[in-house]
Amino acid sequence: xxxxxxxxxxxxxxxxxxxxxxxRELARLTGGREVKKLPTLRGRTVVNLFYEDSTRTRISFxxxxxRLSADVxxxxxxxxxxxxxxxxxxxxxxxxxxGADAVVIRHGASGAPHRLANWVDxxxxxxxxxxxxxxxxxxxxxxxxRERLGRLAGLNVTIVGDVLHSRVARSNVxxxxxxxxxxxxxxxxxxxxxxxxxxxxxxxxxxxxPASDVVMxxxxxxxxxxxxxxxxxREYSRRxxxxxxRMRRLPEHAIVxxxxxxxxxxxxxxxxxxxxxxxxxEQVANGVSVRMAVLYLLLGGK
Amino acid sequence: xxxxxxxxxxxxxxxxxxTDTEVHRVVDRIAHQILEKTEGARDTVxxxxxxRGVPLARRLxxxxxxxxxxxxxxxxxxxTLYRDDLRLKAARALGPTDVPPGGxxxxxxxxxxxxxxxxxxxxxxxxxxxxxxxxxxxxxAVLVDRGHRELPIRADYVGKNIPTALSESVRVSLxxxxxxDEVKLYGGDA
Lengths: 302, 190
Prior knowledge:
The complex is a heterodimer. Chain A has helices spanning about 15-30, 55-65, 90-100, 110-120, 135-150, 165-180, 205-210, 220-225, 235-240, 245, 270-275, 280-300; strands spanning about 45-50, 70-75, 100-105, 125-130, 155-160, 180-185, 200, 215, 255. The model of chain A has no long low-confidence stretch (mean pLDDT about 95). Chain A is globular. In chain A, about 40% of the residues lie in helices and about 15% in strands. Chain A is an alpha/beta fold. By secondary structure, chain B is an alpha/beta fold. Chain B contains 5 helices and 8 strands, in the order H-E-H-E-H-E-E-H-E-E-E-H-E. The relative contact order of chain B is 0.20. Classes of the chains: A alpha/beta, B alpha/beta. Chain A: It catalyses: carbamoyl phosphate + L-aspartate = N-carbamoyl-L-aspartate + phosphate + H(+). Chain A: One of its GO terms (cellular component) is cytosol. Chain A: Keywords: Pyrimidine biosynthesis, Transferase.
């Protein structure tokens, strides 16, 4: 197994499948029972180093580490000496001195986890860096697809929205490619990066719906709505929003995903979000299992 | 260092400890012992420890059914997450864990494994079992006891005791996994 999870490309098909299989066993194992805690990482320390606010991701990692009995230290940049100008390297050396076995890092700068991995002995897990990647989100998306549809190889996955700024989309393209799914990116031309490899690009959502097994809606950030990436929120919603009518054009078995938090009525209508096809709540639960699997496999042995 | 031919052969091909008929006979005997010791296998559930404890547990249940017509539930208990040597070795893939619908509370649990060695796997299994519920009692059935215990653990049902050196290894093959039943002893300094 690898030592760090800095980006989706760190995983080959074998390791990615091992993580998904492990997550499935962990989900089964802790699912219906009273004692949800496992002693596996007792005595290990996991630091959540969050330079950006992300309550969901942080709680998910925290729950995962705690279910494996690791000690968890939450370090948020706000109100710490980071806001007084401490560099990432100095923070890393502090964590090193404290004996952190794993550092889960969320950072506004793309590539921060790569830098951090050079400075600490423990494992580094990327929990989102800039507009670069968010590999555990891609893993939990892949896990959710596999649980719902039974396979990944050969699936047609359509990712819709602000691909340009989306680390979730970037990690998904890489990971799904590794696992044999076919990805189509859909969005306004202003929000589709030009350097895309191993994914198809389309600007017409309605055209790709009938052949999609999975439609993954991306969150539209409020700052993009006011910037000039597209004329108006209303037009975006009309062209790229997932509503009931579009959902009914999908194949019978198709699912609709969203990494959350949603803009209800913007990229996804309440009718879709609350339908049985939507996997949004499952994705959250699966996130904990997948992160447990990642922590176990990175920290379980040396 | 060159080994004498005969010794070299033994290192490579192993020395047979149990043939397939003997494995069957041993399983039958343990099944009878379980029936006797549990007074007709009441309130009892078998838990196989992956990998080879699982087919062994299923065989015991099948034999008990053949002898007395009793359906004994069989579960699977993966102990990987409870091992105490996790940080010493590369992370290993998890096996399945399957608990019969009745759970373990108040039941007599019989753990089934192929080889009893240091006792650490059994210790991990006891911890894992503790997280599933509270069995009334726990017993242990193994096909082979090779000695060298590192913990105060002993088996209730032993197929065969094999005195071994630490440098030797015992390999159990079962038809369900390996295509044939056999127990062999490998290695040693010869």
